[in-house]
Amino acid sequence: MTDLDALLVSQDGVVSRAQAIAVGLQPHDVRRLVRRRDLAPLLPGVYVSHTGEPTWLQRAWGAVLACASPYGMGGADLGAALAGASAMRAADGPGRPGGDAGPIEVVVPRSRRVVAPSGVTVVRSRLAPDHVQWHLGPPRLRYEEAALDVAVRATGEIAAIDAIARAVQGRHTTAVRMQTALASRARAPRRVFLESVLADVAHGTCSVLEHAFLTRVERTHGLPSAIRQVRAGTASGLVYRDAVYGERIVELDGRLFHDTAEQRDRDFERDLDAAVEGHSTVRLTWGQVVGRPCRTAAKLALLFARDGWPAAMPCGPGCDLARAA
Question: Are 257 and 287 in contact (CB under 8 A)?
Answer without folding.
Answer: no
